[in-house]
Amino acid sequence: MSDIYIHGAGDYYAPYNEPAADLKQLVAEAVGQPVRRIGRFIQLALIGAGRCAQAAAIGTNSAVYFGSGRGDTEISIEVMQTLFRDGHAPKPLSFINTVSNAACFYIAQTLKLSGRSSFVCNRYFAFESVLQLAALDVSTNAVATALVGTVDVVVPPLKDYRVRLELPADAPIAEASHWLCLRSTSEGAQGRLLAVENFANRDALLGWLERQAIDKTCLLSAGQFLATDEFAALVGNLGTEHFLYRSNRVYYDSQSGAAMGEFLRDPASRGRQLLHINRDPSGRHAVMWIARP
Amino acid sequence: MSDVFISGAGLHTTLGRGLGANIAALDRAPIPPQLHAIEVAGNEHALPYYLLADAPLANVEQRFYDAIDAVIDDALTQSRLTPAERHATALFMGSSCGEMPVLEAEYRRDLQASRDALAMAGTSSLGNLATRIRKRFALQGPDYSFYTACTASANATAYAASMLRAGRIRHAVVVGVEIFNAVTALGFSGLQLLTRDVMRPFDKRRAGLVPGEAIAAIVLTGEPHRGGWRILGGANLCDTHSISATNPDGSAIAAVVRQALAASGTTLDAIAAIKMHGTASLLNDEAESAGVRSLFATLPPLCALKPYLGHTFGACGLAELALFCGRISRGALPASPGICADDSDLKITLNQAPRAQSPGHFMLNYFGFGGSNTSLIISNKP
Questions:
Q1: Is B146 close to A114, i.e. CB distance below 8 A?
Q2: Which DSSP helix (H) or strand (E) runs through B81?
């Protein structure tokens, strides 16, 4: 097994307001060219992946591990409304884009990649799940460079999307795209991935934490689905500091990737580690642990 | 590098419920699909579809979940995992449709009450089906839902095997699901890719595909005493030639096969037979035949299972793997009599009669929308 290093991060985050901000210019800046006939979900993927690729100078054999808490709801809703409400068969390109890995195709085509690509969905551990798959492939030398990211899109009208997310009628919602670039080589790395783990329950997590040499200077960040009191207890047990990355963020599903990007960009985090802990409603926990040189 | 074994399997397709019924059906010639009426906004479309055997298309939600539960239950029962082992077991899902049949039924119902009804009104997520399966079967390990079109459950299988091999997990359930839905049927109809006849991959008379329903599940383990067939390895690569078709020169397919062989620690000359993807579409069959011909000086025996199952999209990776393994375990390579019997314009032939097949290494190929190409290498050689 090889070590795994982080060579770049690329992020996009913006609270969603109507009318929706036009993303075409941001896409062109991120990937170096305009990309036509794509939906907003794919645009967001290109912005995050493109920014990450710029930061890490990736090669053509790079692999793409793309995740989401829900999938490309934009295209699914459009096709269902067109079909069942309006009575028209899906347009060919719309139908093809209902396969959620369509975004992987556009990332690979735009960034000129021909490596592996997978689209993987997990409602609560979206970023953690794709990071695990990418780390597996990098650590076993199955791939040399991995682009790992998640996307959250808002489908207008906003009031309807709040209903879909089961949020209050006035709740703000954001769109986001968070990406990391992983390699097994250390030269020029911005960080190192120490662990990405799953646990069946809290006891399994606590047992694992006891076996790790976690320095008091390690920062601890809370996944959005981890209860505040559980996180406070963990901070107390470990005697570490709380890393804040969500204080100015409004709701979107897959915020774990944001913790990674914020930590890697924070000048104060040089030489420190970040332990990010998340959980889902069934009591499973997930951990991402990274270090900066 | 440790081996990965299949310790349990379940399958429900148009051929039958249960792996045995499916295998037995391969001794009969493939039959043309029935047409099924899809009524949308007052317009009725009659489209070919292979539906699950013994599962009438009624009460869509219950039919969907009951059929999935039964297949997973078969695989888990056969695997004899203890409750503690099952608790830690990881779930790898592969599908194209996810819960679309259920979402369609809900939206249709809501639209009858109000034209302003919301599509996907609940907290819909492509991860919800995995969440439901985990709860139903008390699986508390990690879950990964692969949505990579027609390679989805093949990719789920490959990653489950990789995680087992790396010692990240001890057992995995892999599930492939593809169930009748209007979006898929009308989407492929709109692309003019459907035929009302038996699918004839690589044949001069090939005229398109027939969608098929399938639910397949296998349990994977690193413990040899529990299993027979082994997953040696696999690979997937993204082909950016076109979002809906593989590069017709076969180069992308040859590349993914080479990577799968390397990942499996085996070579072309060790491959005893190939299960082709075979969508019976003009371009994809051209690409696949060019790909395998470019690799082998002499092609091993080739078979295709879609004439029997239809194209089961996200489930085909696992449904075809289960059927292929099951038939060979009973001593014969699957055949498709009368389909691509002679050297076609694509210069390949498919196996025409069940032929005795000794244990060996086998290649299973899958190619999908979004440029997703996957090759798996499996073995029943001791």
A1: no
A2: none
Q: What is the dihedral of CA B308, B312, B315, B317, to 10 degrees?
A: 60
- Domain span holding position B90: 5-379
d(CA A288, CA A223): 10
Nearest chain A CA: its distance from B95 CA (Å) = 10
**Strand pairing category for B143-146 and B90-95:** parallel
**Per the CB < 8 Å rule, is B118 touching A140?**
no
Which DSSP letter does residue B174 get? E
Q: At what angle do helices A73-80 and B100-113 cross, to 10 degrees?
A: 50
Q: Phi and psi dihedrals of B232, rounded to 5?
A: -80, -35
Which residues of chain A are within 8 Å of residue B123 when distances are taken between CB atoms?
Answer: 164-166
* Inter-chain residue contact A98 with B186, CB threshold 8 Å: no
User: Residue A1's pLDDT is what?
Assistant: 58
For residue A282, which residues of chain B lie inside 8 Å, CB to CB? 131, 134-135, 140
Whether the CB-CB separation of A145 and A61 falls below 8 Å is answered with: yes
Our count of domains for chain B comes to: 1
B42, B100, B237 member nearest A115 (Cβ): B237
Residue B148 with chain A: CB contacts under 8 Å: 99, 101, 104, 117-119
CATH number at residue B275: 3.40.47.10
Please report which confidence band the pLDDT of residue A138 belongs to, taking 50, 70 and 90 as the band edges.
Answer: very high
Query: Helix, strand, or coil here: B128?
Result: helix
Whether residue B43 lies within 8 A of chain A, CB to CB, comes out as: yes
Residue B112 one-letter amino acid: Q
Q: Which of residues 81-100 of B touch A (CB under 8 A)?
A: 87-88, 96, 98, 100
Tell me how many residue pairs between chain A and chain B have CB atoms under 8 A apart: 216
Q: Which parts of A16-103 are beta strand (E)?
A: 63-68
DSSP character string of A108-173? HHHHT--S-EEEEE-SS-HHHHHHHHHHHHHHTTS-SEEEEEEEE---SSHHHHHHHTT--TT--B
Q: What angle do CA A52, A57, A61 make, to 5 degrees?
A: 95
Question: Is B171 near chain A, with CB under 8 Å?
Answer: no
Q: Tell me whether residues B125 and A123 touch, CB distance under 8 A.
A: yes
Mean pLDDT for A43-64 is 95
Mutate to test the interface with A, among B87, B100, B125 (most CBs of A within 10 A): B125
0.90 surpassed by complex ipTM: yes
List CB contacts (< 8 A) between B127 and chain A: 69-70, 121-124, 126
One pLDDT digit (tens) per residue for chain B, 382 residues: 579 999 999 999 999 999 999 999 999 999 999 999 998 878 899 999 999 999 999 999 999 999 999 999 999 999 999 999 999 999 999 999 999 999 999 999 999 999 999 999 877 899 999 999 999 999 999 999 999 999 999 999 999 999 999 999 999 999 999 999 999 999 999 999 999 999 999 999 999 999 999 999 999 999 877 768 999 999 999 999 999 988 999 999 999 999 999 999 999 999 999 999 999 999 899 999 999 999 999 999 999 999 999 999 999 999 999 999 999 999 999 999 999 998 778 999 999 998 899 999 999 999 999 999 999 999 999 8
**Amino acid, res. B379:** S
The answer to whether the Cβ–Cβ distance between B244 and A96 falls below 8 Å is: yes
